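Hi, here's the filled form for the chain we discussed.

Project: internal
Contact: R.S.
Residues: 389
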Amino acid sequence: MIESWRWYGEFDTISLSEVAQTGARDIVTALHDIPYGEVWPVDSIAARKRLIQKAGFEWNVVESLPVHEHIKRGEGDLRQLFANYRQSMANLASEGVKTICYNFMPLLDWTRTDLAAPVSNGATCLRFDAVRMAAFEIHMLGRRAAEDDYPEDVRHRAAAWFQQATQNDRDDLLAAIMAGLPGAFERYDVIGLRNILESYADMDRAALRANYHRFLQEVVPTAEELGMRLCVHQDDPPRDILGLPRIVSSGDDLDWVMDAYDSRANGVTLCAGSLGANPANDVPAIAAKVAQRIHFVHLRNVRKDPNGSFEEAAHLDGDTDMVALVRVILQEEARRRDTGRSDHNIPFRPDHGHHMLSDLTRDLIPGYPLIGRLKGLAELRGVIRALSS
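And the returned structure, exactly as it came back:
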């Protein structure tokens, strides 16, 4: 397994020289300054690669080459957006970056209600609280039918939270939810979010799947021609949010994705944390089922509550059996090696991490601290070494 590290380029306060001390070999990054739908220029890709290589790393996985919201909505004449996406793929391939992680989540890339929830040892973590999310949807956003998405006890507690919440509490909740909006270009207030959600008013699961199927038909042939691998990231959390359907949340969903375009180029970013947030998902079993199409792995863990809430756990301490999951990945690597594939090693990265120690006073991207991820990487490295012995 290839140790990788997500780095946000010019938006990241963690330097590549700091990352080098973790022992990771590869940098996973993207051109985060380019608006969605525009072509990634070869010169910009090459400059980023030179920067990464100068620091002693390789760049083999891009996370993410984003899918424009118009494509997800199936809105308007999409020919230019698809052409731009294919051109960006070609430009990445020309610089040797041939694995593309992406997602097909409408509007939000991920959703949390707390960006610094306390954990028992004084550190903080990302948390999704079902009560606060219900309070936001029902009482702040006023979304029609939101009450149908939450059980009665959660609705009662949400009403109580909203009644006692200060304006600062409500502002913090909105900011936490908006942190999941992709890129650095748009953030909404409550009225703005309500308006943008109207553009998805007629979007159901079947419609979103149809738009996703078209996306695969448009881009997977190009990936095949370029020798690239597309790998979809699962929904985070794996449930409908804000009335928006989610279609990459379970093993059955991944089966649909693989069947929608049957090609090794159409693969999976196996995210243990995203899948693990749904109690119905057996993450190691899902990984074993789709193993031959796994091109990239996010290893993190979550701890779930009965009411649908969850929070980021230490990498080896959550509800997912991380040792069993790593064993599945190593077995798939061995299978690929036995078939003579030179690209049998699968890149992974320690995903998220607790903010702890000196990271608590640094201005860091939520969920992406230095020390918490280093701790996770060290733990995972030990598991990999033990299972490989």
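Let me know if anything looks off before we file it.
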